[in-house]
Design goal:
This protein is an alpha/beta fold and 296 residues long. The chain has eleven helices and twelve strands. The mean pLDDT is 87.
């Protein structure tokens, strides 16, 4: 079979789906729609005359043919990606590409970019928004800014912002609480969280409260903020990214108690890859920003 561009795209889609074991996560990784990814894999199956993926409820499994194809393709795609990176970075010129969580970008990074370009006016920065941490063997990026515990395979990381979480609500919703509410009052209200209901349990423990509560997960920061702004309940939110809303009064903080889940936003780069001058400039700038004005 001739290895034309369409087939390369199909194979790339298949490898991503196989590695992530999910069309949704693979689509996010490749920055394409799930529909486009599904079409690529189906066309590949038609071209090869065999089923590669079993589409089960909320998950996928590879067939025997799919496992064989993945074994044959994965190493070659990694090699191609590595060769492209070496050529791209050989002259230490061109754009600096950084993968960044969308909400962190909107609330913390992009408002500060003017200061970056004041210090480094010639820096060509490209931001690639992604919900998943950068996968350096696969993603063509120089660095990433990701939420987590700072431990990712094949990566070196440095903490930018500690991830303390605090309850916030709209001003209208705050009016439903007593003038001087006790933390236990929240047990009777609808609560929202992004990552883990255990974070609310940890918050109540830190506030000296023990009791049952109802919490709804909204696993996207933008959607979580919207639900809280619309007065649907109280959200446990990352303290470092809610300061603007607190200053403007769009959100209020009914209690000062905060809890550290042991995670945060990290600046991440591939382990073992030399730091280019442009990446070095960006790293020094963002670390200075995090140290001097973490909550600006």
């Amino acid at each position: 079979m001739e290895l034309h561009l369409a087939l390369l795209a199909q194979l790339r889609a298949f490898v991503a789906v196989a590695r992530h074991q999910s069309f949704k996560r693979a689509a996010e990784h490749l920055h394409v729609t799930q529909s486009a990814l599904s079409h690529h894999v189906r066309h590949l199956e038609q071209d090869l005359g065999t089923q590669l993926v079993e589409r089960l409820h909320r998950r996928i499994e590879l067939t025997a043919a799919g496992r064989t194809l993945l074994d044959g393709c994965a190493t070659h795609f990694d090699g191609l990606a590595g060769a492209v990176r070496q050529v791209r970075h050989a002259g230490d010129t061109g754009a600096l590409t950084v993968s960044v969580a969308p909400y962190f970008s909107a609330k913390w990074l992009t408002p500060r970019l003017g200061r970056l370009w004041s210090r480094h006016p010639a820096l060509d920065l490209q931001l690639r928004h992604a919900y998943q941490p950068a996968d350096f063997p696969q993603d063509d990026v120089d660095a990433g800014i990701s939420w987590g515990h700072g431990r990712w395979s094949g990566a070196e990381s440095v903490l930018l912002l500690a991830g303390t979480l605090t309850p916030v609500c709209s001003a209208d919703y705050r009016a439903r609480l007593a003038a001087r509410p006790r933390p236990a009052a929240l047990l009777k209200h609808r609560l929202f969280y992004e990552f883990d209901a255990a974070h609310w349990r940890a918050w109540f423990a830190a506030a000296g409260v023990n009791g049952a509560f109802t919490a709804v997960q909204i696993d996207d920061s933008h959607a979580l903020r919207r639900a809280v702004l619309d007065g649907h309940g109280v959200g446990l939110f990352f303290e470092g990214l809610v300061q603007e809303d607190l200053r403007t009064g769009q959100l209020v903080q009914p209690f000062k108690t905060a809890v550290d889940p042991g995670a945060g936003y990290y600046l991440v780069r591939p382990r073992g890859r030399p730091v280019s001058s442009r990446l070095g400039e960006f790293m020094q700038w963002i670390l200075d920003e995090a140290r001097q004005e973490p909550f600006a």
